[in-house]
């Protein structure tokens, strides 16, 4: 009896508390920038695709929901021929973002991806690619990777010496 | 066996090894770069440092390079000693100072020895923050990619390319910390063994350019143990698939066969599997819609089978299972080999010799260890490249072995042995029709017509065994040469004679046998190795069927013939006139093949067959070793099936007994074995299809295989059931038994911490030794001690005829392969068709280089440019064999030049 009355009292008191529930979707959820939501592929400062098709995200993915195929342009710059994420399998763990050596794949604060058909949760590269550098502006992998893939010549990157003149014996 | 103490634990190790080999053989992880089991130690990279102690009381010890220190009884060393581990981590830190941060775009990433060793030594944070050295790259041809920034200066590439493989155009340039590994200038790497640089280089300086076209990490490949299809040696390979395409071929270590290395044709010649020219749909020609489904095809086949005389044409490049299934379908008496009579005769001779048990046929490893080699007529550089590499090792190592027997220097001490040996070489006599790159390491060479080479062989046999007849009218030059060679062979402990079928001359085979048998009588273990033409030539020859000419006769005899041709482009195997004659006398032609070719154009019914990568199959190599090649992937197109499955299904139409569907390849082999006693033991060449480890299969995929739930999500978001393979113990999943698999079933080499191919040391009994559980494959011919029956039939000396030339084929490593030319990089290195004459002959006929010469062969005229061959004997015309689009000619016949256009 006392327990019942106590419960009713508690419920009554809650009428005067601040409401936790928000009126979504009229009212938006405040999401922190590091929220692990929808996965995007970002672009380099020069507008090229950041993804170099290294397969590390696919290898890191615990549910194996990333599949891609790397290819190369004439200049030797690698990019994915196709890049597919099956969001109906994705658990938004963020391991792919951690594994990505080029900051290409990023998880963003967006969770509104519900679909009526499961097939529509399969995102291709066109769906994933955004026209932004995301969280890491100014970074271009090819500037620090050493090799010449049309972004910069050998020796022109950060922390690189001019190519060795192999005909010279001067130290 | 000496006992050594590693970190105070006693281990028994093999004497004569170095500490690094001993540690690796014991299963310990010790990092290294410059040492390679096939190339020995030079102590250049300083990565394998360990601490050696004077005795039990010594606590201070000294750092030594384990690859440069011999095993001694009672030796005490420490791998885990603090100073040693610090030393190793400092060395890797130095090596890594200039290594670029490009692993994500490096093809070696994921199977990189440098990555493995860096992790193994614990160097995980880079303190060096200054500028990195860079290099410009070179164009090294269509097969190998160069990215010099990644180099760690271990010198393995030049040691392999120059010292091991005998290449000349790759070298080290510049000095101090600027050394550069490359060519003098951009250009295609000349050695046909350059592809091994990809595996020899511990990092990504040299990578596979064909893989780059469809790049896939090692962990994402579906792998299976396969057998190379491009020559008769049967090198073991690992083939990898992704997204329904064959992606690359890497070496599968087999100490008896290919060891650590492949030739470029084997490594890169896989792209025919992905070709757009593949047969993908059953076709019934001469009807409204030619493409049909399986039910229609079977219905049509049953009408073709009843009331028709069946003729089956087998293939030297199809597996034994498929050939046997065809023989089973058409009946033994109606099964023909699909190669010309002359070749069948020579191959039959070889089979008789091998199966007689009178002689030992050596494996490639034994050829490597031979101390005198005589090559009689065979151009092994082009027809059996890895054998040429083995012969080179025998020549280079014999002298080293002799030297190290006298001086106390172990054989693995590469630089020291080289200093001692200098230019001394073992004995090689290269007796061929034309010059060969092997000539430069030969002690004795001869350029002559096949008959003259055979006469030289008989002359040698006569010296070795005087009861054999003397060669009549032998010239003094031949006598002296025969004397020199026989002396060298007599002095050798393990002489090897090599011959083959590429000269289309049976006297050579008989002469080679006489020499080997004569040597055997003198209590030596002489070896006689044969080179065949295709990957299953010997297997087909062992079925002892008749030649193609007999098939024509038989087709002409009856009016209602249905010919079933198995994976054989007759226009490449027999002269075009004969093929046409055969087709015109057949009422129906059924062809099973993988790629469209001129024979499939003549087919009334065309059935798509699976390539080696899509099929299980057993192939018999040149030493009569039956080896199993496993299916790498199931074709997405279910109309593409193994030939033996199609043929079993067609047979079930005929007999109506049993449906034939569920016939496993091992059951076909058992049937083959019971029918032909010469194949006894062949069903043991691989574990049966129901072999399991505690109920588990062996996975074709690595445990890191990615994309499982996304690969096919674009087609259907629900993942399909994993593919079922009832034909082998391998599975199409990541799950299964990950322990040591039986050696014929190792799908790829990987061990914890060893992602690169170097992990093979975990699969070997000792480094460079045999695989745990024995080498894959079953040898079908062993020496039994039967007294040899010598051949006494010596051919007449070759005489050049007036205006007539002996027609011989010239095989080209790049170009002569039917399948390998589908790889663009190989096709681009293939020569254009030509006709070759000796300089003297050309001058006599008033011909100049490049003149268009018309030659009539088998009623067909061919006009080709003339190429004058400096080393060709007079009276012989050489024509490249098997170039794309070229007919097969009547090799060994005589032709004349009809017209000349300047």
Automatic annotation (TrEMBL), chain A:
[4Fe-4S] cluster 2 binds at residues 61, 90, 93, 96. It is found in: Cell inner membrane; Cell membrane. It is a peripheral membrane protein. Its EC number is 7.1.1.-. The keyword Metal-binding applies. PROSITE patterns: 4FE4S_FER_1 (PS00198), 4FE4S_FER_2 (PS51379). Keywords: 4Fe-4S, Cell membrane, Iron, Iron-sulfur, Membrane, Metal-binding, NAD, Oxidoreductase, Quinone, Repeat, Translocase, Ubiquinone. It is an enzyme of class 7 (translocase). GO terms for biological process: aerobic respiration. It catalyses: a quinone + NADH + 5 H(+)(in) = a quinol + NAD(+) + 4 H(+)(out). Residues 39-71, 81-110 form the 4Fe-4S ferredoxin-type domain. It holds the Pfam family Fer4_7. Binds 2 [4Fe-4S] clusters per subunit. Its cofactor is [4Fe-4S] cluster. GO terms for cellular component: plasma membrane. InterPro entries: 4Fe4S_Fe-S-bd, 4Fe4S_Fe_S_CS, NADH_quinone_OxRdtase_chainI. The keyword Oxidoreductase applies. GO terms for molecular function: 4 iron, 4 sulfur cluster binding; iron ion binding; NADH dehydrogenase (quinone) (non-electrogenic) activity; quinone binding. [4Fe-4S] cluster 1 binds at residues 51, 54, 57, 100. Signal peptide: none annotated. NDH-1 shuttles electrons from NADH, via FMN and iron-sulfur (Fe-S) centers, to quinones in the respiratory chain. The immediate electron acceptor for the enzyme in this species is believed to be ubiquinone. Couples the redox reaction to proton translocation (for every two electrons transferred, four hydrogen ions are translocated across the cytoplasmic membrane), and thus conserves the redox energy in a proton gradient. NDH-1 is composed of 14 different subunits. Subunits NuoA, H, J, K, L, M, N constitute the membrane sector of the complex. NDH-1 is composed of 13 different subunits. Subunits NuoA, H, J, K, L, M, N constitute the membrane sector of the complex. PANTHER family: NADH DEHYDROGENASE [UBIQUINONE] IRON-SULFUR PROTEIN 8, MITOCHONDRIAL, NADH DEHYDROGENASE UBIQUINONE IRON-SULFUR PROTEIN 8, MITOCHONDRIAL. Belongs to the complex I 23 kDa subunit family. This is NADH-quinone oxidoreductase subunit I. It comes from Chitinophaga tropicalis. The gene is nuoI.
Automatic annotation (TrEMBL), chain B:
GO terms for molecular function: 2 iron, 2 sulfur cluster binding; 4 iron, 4 sulfur cluster binding; metal ion binding; NADH dehydrogenase (ubiquinone) activity; NADH dehydrogenase activity; quinone binding. Residues 221-277 form the 4Fe-4S Mo/W bis-MGD-type domain. The keyword Transcription does not apply. It comes from the Bacteria. It holds the Pfam family NADH-G_4Fe-4S_3. Gene3D superfamilies: 2.40.40.20, 3.10.20.740, 3.30.200.210, 3.40.50.740. The keyword Metal-binding applies. It is an enzyme of class 7 (translocase). Binds 1 [2Fe-2S] cluster per subunit. One of its GO terms (biological process) is ATP synthesis coupled electron transport. Residues 83-122 form the 4Fe-4S His(Cys)3-ligated-type domain. InterPro entries: 2Fe-2S_ferredoxin-like_sf, 2Fe-2S_ferredoxin-type, Asp_de-COase-like_dom_sf, Mopterin_OxRdtase, Mopterin_OxRdtase_4Fe-4S_dom, NADH_UbQ_OxRdtase_75kDa_su_CS, NADH_UbQ_OxRdtase_ferredoxin, NADH_UbQ_OxRdtase_Gsu. Its EC number is 7.1.1.-. Its cofactor is [2Fe-2S] cluster; [4Fe-4S] cluster. Belongs to the complex I 75 kDa subunit family. NDH-1 shuttles electrons from NADH, via FMN and iron-sulfur (Fe-S) centers, to quinones in the respiratory chain. Couples the redox reaction to proton translocation (for every two electrons transferred, four hydrogen ions are translocated across the cytoplasmic membrane), and thus conserves the redox energy in a proton gradient. Composed of 13 different subunits. Subunits NuoCD, E, F, and G constitute the peripheral sector of the complex. This is NADH-quinone oxidoreductase.
